[in-house]
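The methods section describes the discrete structure representation at length, but only in general terms. Since the whole study asks how a given chain folds, the encoding of that fold should be made plain. An entry of this sort, consisting of the sequence and the corresponding backbone structure tokens, reads as follows:

. . .
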Amino acid sequence: MKVYCFSGLGADERAFKYLDLYPHKVVHVKWLDPIENETLESYANRMGAVVDQREPFILMGLSFGGMLVQELSMYMNPRKTILISTISGKHEQPFRMKISKLFNLYNLIPSAYFNRPSAIAFRLFGAKSQGEQELLSEILQDSDPKYIRWALNAIARWDNTQTIEAFRIHGSDDRLFPLKSVKPDYVVKGGGHLMVISHAKEIEQQLLNVMESVE
């Protein structure tokens, strides 16, 4: 079965590099350039054009990608939707995100800041080991600051209130989207926002179990 993977904000397939989901065929969906002032809903619809709905498929999204697959799941018919380290709507947005939306704070931050590795970024993403910090640094440096600014504003303005049926995995130590605000099906103890890297084998087993159950 095909598994369409949508990575986190500014990231790519490197976010899933430690997951082995064989025998499933993994399709890493590449980001499109956003249209000016485009909503997350509209962007998700364009991203979803890559999904072949003529055969059974699974949608899997990490962080920002998780928000996109929720939008897709509202009009597509995946065999399963899997959400990793993400929120399901504005009711789960952390307080700082709501404040940023209210005061339009993301537009006040210099663009260069968005793809600059820092101790703050490492802490927020939970990148503790040298390998995790090096990978996060690579991803951030390869990101387009304009894209990240657009995405942060789109996320802050995401007004989804519809709950879809999905299998949710979340880390107990996630600082971007604290566990107290979400309702996951499986909690990775000690997992931060980058737990898909730091706790890859544990997550991999959970994913394989879920995928096997829907075949």
The helical segments are 40-47, 64-73, 95-103, 119-125, 130-141, 145-156, 195-198, 200-214. The CA atoms of residues 61 and 69 lie 6 Å apart.
